[in-house]
Design goal:
about 70 residues; alpha+beta; two-stranded antiparallel sheet; 4 strands
Length: about 70
Amino acid sequence: APLGVRACGGPREYIAYCPATTDSARLFAKLAELARAETAANERSGAMSVCSLVTPPAPGYTGGRCTAAASSQ
């Protein structure tokens, strides 16, 4: 799931979550709240960031847990 907002646009990073054990609607509502707050803070401060593309990690399932490979940053 995308986490945060870079000043240049797009998510700061991605987090792994397991839809089978996570209240996805609540998670995405909180992530949207965070994105709005970070967007407002970036605009207020005139923040700058790298404009590189962060790609979602590849999901996996290891040892009974949802996992994610490292994303590019």
